[in-house]
Batch of 2 targets.
Target 1
Amino acid sequence: MTMHETRKAPPKGVPFRPRGRSRVRGLTVVRAVAGMAVFALLLFAWELAGRHDTTGLLPPFSDVAAEMAAILTGERLTTDVLPSVLRALLGFALGSVIGMTAGVVLGWWRRLDPWLRPPVEFLRAVPTPALVPIAVVAFGAGNALRVWVIALGACWPVLLNTMDGLRRVEPGYIDSARVYTSGRTTAVLGRAALPAALPQITSGLRIGLALSLILMVISEMIASSSGLGYLILQSQRLYALTPMYAGVLILACTGWLLTLLFSAAERRALVWFEGMKGRNHA
Amino acid sequence: MRSTSPLPTVPPAERHRGRRTWFMLIHVGKGLAGILGLVLLYEGARATGILPRDTIPGAHSIATTAVRELLDGSLTTAAGDTLQAWVLGLAAACAVGVPVGMALGASSWADSLAKVTVEFLRPVPAVALVPVAVVSFGLDIIMQVFLVGFACLWPVLIGTRHGVRAIDPLMIDSARMLGLTRRAVLTRVSLPATLPAIATGVRLAASLGVIVAVAAEIVTGSPGLGQYLTQAQQAGDDAAAFASVLMSGLLGLAVNILFVAAEVRVAGWQQHSTEGRR
Amino acid sequence: MPEAIKGRQHDRQATGPAAATLLEARNIAKCFSHPNGTVTPAIGDIALSLAKGEFVAIVGPSGCGKTTLLRCLCGLLKPDSGTLSYAGKPVSDVPEDVAVVFQEYNRSLFPWLSVRRNVEFGLNKLSKTERRARAEEALTRVHLTDVIEHYPWQLSGGMQQRVAIARAVATQPNLLLMDEPFASVDAQTRIRLETMTASISTELGLATLLITHDIDEAVFLADRVIVLSPRPSSVLAEVVVDIPRPRTELEVKAMPRFQEYRRLIHDLIVAKQSDTPDVVDTPAPDGTEPERSP
């Protein structure tokens, strides 16, 4: 007795791959190219505007690009750019660990909620940039401090999303886990609740990553004598606009690249989620 | 699906007004206890030296300074300045983000065209643009509005686009079948359906806006809580510096509570679905 | 002439094929209290017992707390009062050899796991090869071996529920509890699933407790049907279904006996039903699991 009511099933052994919206593959490529063309057009417009600029405030794109290349191939790569990015990533990693741990505690043991929610909501509302000058005065401006500041700022979206994700787990999954595992908290939490909450958790991680970059820049603008953020600010103060824009672009590219990598990793981890969504949409 | 049942079916055993108020009081009490716990933790860290006692003031002095500064006006003015930049920036972000987001959501061609540009601009930290903004606009409030606006634009735009794309085509079909004109479908079906997503986007943007506004003030020295902070530090008045941090936190909290309430109002009818995560 | 044994069963051993009593419940009651202070009684006073290998169905009107009862019986929910013992021992959490098939398959099968992994979920203690073997065996029983690497949400409702049954059966339980398993499935599929359940239950000699609102289903599948009153529920009557096995759907439903049982149970329920208004899902009460509509 077989009931052939499945959707188009992938061949055996092949993991499920979510389809894009356009049915025809060719069309997707055309669209991608068109998008890039628009972007290139904007850069071209920048170039023109820069060439004809009389105020001296907008260097043409080609100059900026050249400066970018110079920075990335010169010594500033290892003295400024890479350490900044590394600090941001370290802070993000640290913040994620803190955020997820605290998020699991707050999200799973709901009895604590009325007690812990108000202080958590307050702490998270404090703008982390405001803590940077204070932290500098209190602890001195060192590498460790900057990483910690980034971590403590970036942990909030991770914490809140982990907490939220765990709370919104379908009770049915929890019930099934209680029936089919030993029933201990670690089993139910680890085998059912966390996988179910993963989409929400990665959403928080993504926001945390963006926040790490922001905090990295801020901490360097306020309290540093090296790094990408410092480079940008210093250039502005010296009215050296080309390196300033170059720095901003490098930062933008780094952010874009990291986000891309993150999205790719997220998609692999959440193949099932994409599939489910696709089904609901279709 | 959970609809709050307005009635218990069997004549309830107890239903005192008093009992309900008691429950609420307990709830609030727990929250206050939590906050008190936080303060105790803070003081404990100071006492043990984890937080250096000479540069980090005690909770009591922070509180008294805050109250004093609020009453005599300087902290209040600073808060007002921050709020001003924030409101204008958020409004600008919505004014641009909602229409553009709707356009991107409705037309998949427009979306494809804009995709690369949006994906590139989006991760740019607004604070990285502080120098650019200063160079372009000087130290006027327009500079702050630009920064806050740029930062807030993305959550609003992405949220709106997400909302438009998530509209169930079945709803549109049903509306058409019932005889609504295209315009009516837009105003009576699409718009209300998108509103929750827009509300979420605006809420995220609002919180982000406060952070960016304060950060910009710290870096550039333009009027607001951030400037108040750096000035207090330079004057050596740590308690005032902390008071301004406290104020920023309360501001952020108030903004968050306000927008969460607004979002619930707008989106309360919406079922939680997997699509809704953002 | 079929008879309903009215009232409760507390002092009697389980009827049906004489064997050790597997599950014994006495004076089970459960109320839900809400944060705003109201208290909703769900179960009033339930007593029942189940013997090894017995198939018992529980029928009742909508809103009478059937799901709550099932959750108490399997250990997911703690009753306010009464005693509950499984295999002689009091029930605290879900016992090792009890399996449950829930009503909503899309909210109990794990979407991040393939069908195979879902079925293997309860078999963690076994070696990898044993797990695979058991899973395949279970899936063969429910005729689903060709979709073993798919994800549950790629399948239709009937197929998903079969996966849920396979998951339960793979653990080789002594007691199988089913909470309105075929309510969310279309009528034709439901009949096929009922037949499949009957054959699995008989083949494995599995003690089964089925909650349903479908009287036909209850009479077709069960050795004994327990009829519940509206909320706060108690046992109205027990009806022993004296139809020989194996039962085939067409034959059984044509039997006049079947119709009599059906009528009897239907009348019992209807007689009591007129007093109680309908209920929707109640909100999640303070600290306990949310009540789902029974």
Target 2
Amino acid sequence: MDLHISDISHSYGATEVLRGIDLHITAGQIVCLIGPSGCGKSTLLRFVGGLERPRSGRVVQIGEPPAGCLNPLTYIFQDFALLPWRTAAGNISLVLEDHGLGRAAVREIVDDVLARTKLTDFRDALPRQLSGGMKQRVAIARALAVRPACLLMDEPLSALDSQTRDLLLDDLLDLWLRERFTACYVTHNLEEAVRIGHRVVVLSRRPGQIREVVDLDIPLEDRLDHPEALETRRRHLWELMREEALAADKELADV
Amino acid sequence: MSDDAKPVPYRGGGFAPRPVGLVGPIVFALVLGLWEAGSRLGWISPIILPAPSQALGALADLVETGRLWLHVSASLQRLVQGWVFGALLGVLVGFAAGLFSLARAGIVPVVAALFPIPKIALLPLFIIWFGIGEESKVATILFGTFFPTVISVYGGVDNVDRNLIRMGQSFGLGWFSIVRKIVLPGAMPAILSGFRISASIAIILLVAAEMIGAEYGIGAYILLAGNLMATDQLVAGVAMLSILGLTVSWVLGRIEKAVLRWR
């Protein structure tokens, strides 16, 4: 299932946040959205998943989601969004309970995704007992449980310290190599973008417009073998972002 | 290291009270002991304030004649009926105000207007409506617990993390599922602390209502003792109220511990 974002514009009151965004998300690819803070990248992601309505433009899905998919467009949130009163397993079963699968089937799926994210030993842990990285793993397991057609990741690693971020990024890469999921990945971290993105979309400062789309042709599994190439791309992206970030900073100071 | 080296002065610490066992019971025993000693030594006139042992004697009398259960059961019945129905209605109305704009627009001003009225002032009206029997007393307690419950429940619903609700929506959970599995548990801490407040209000109203017109009940017993200048019975009645209050707060504490284990 592909996603097509066509001509999306939006404003909050008098503040125009997005202008004329056109974007195609191809099945099996990870599209990274980067841009200075306040450029509307998270807002765009909320439009893609139908959590908010744009003032104009629309998001269409092309083709049917794969069989067995319970929630085609599934988010992974920056703040994890785990229910603090449910255990890891309970948080995962939460999103399965409304589908009338039956107790045994739910248990089977929960066990399966916990194993796939190496969380089996933590199935009965409450969120407050887990570190940030483990919480995000639970949230990833929850997202996998509904067999999404496209993962919508809103800065999934930004709330974590840098070591945990590296570990989890490796996990995400492993996961992609095994499952070839489709994702729209919002981040402000360029290293993340060049490690995990097949395509990086650079948004300008507010109102967010697409400034450039950079295709990264090195396969994800080989990226670490080409550090110079990655560094070149990263520097190119940084040059694009730099002016926007500077200008965005000054704009905020004016307010 | 040179001669003028000295350790950095310690400036942290404090501002972190921790539980110290036994102190509470010791203070309690000390106050009671001083009181008893004062009475025995003739410093405190028995007419002004009876000794704790005298009050205990009055309590023993009550147990012997079997009137203790009569008073306590009458009070408990009113308290439980009034509080349970008041809290139940309060939770329902509070949820309506927390979830629906229209309900909120209607409920909040009414609650704001009626909450500050001392409910005991309405008791004469309730007596006219429901008669001098149990109904008017239960209605007073019900009314008194209803409003604080509404306020704490809709405040609690408001404070549920919106990100969690958005998460529920993003996974396609149904409206009822979101309310039952996300909003209700999320509002639970506020609801339970509202229950603590409403339970104290219920006890205050219980005694007040029983003082106005009741044959049995702790409030009636205290009023009668006062009219007869039987201060030992009066103190015994007040002690019963204190025990009642402590029991209610202990029960709520246990419920909080069980329900909010995740915190």
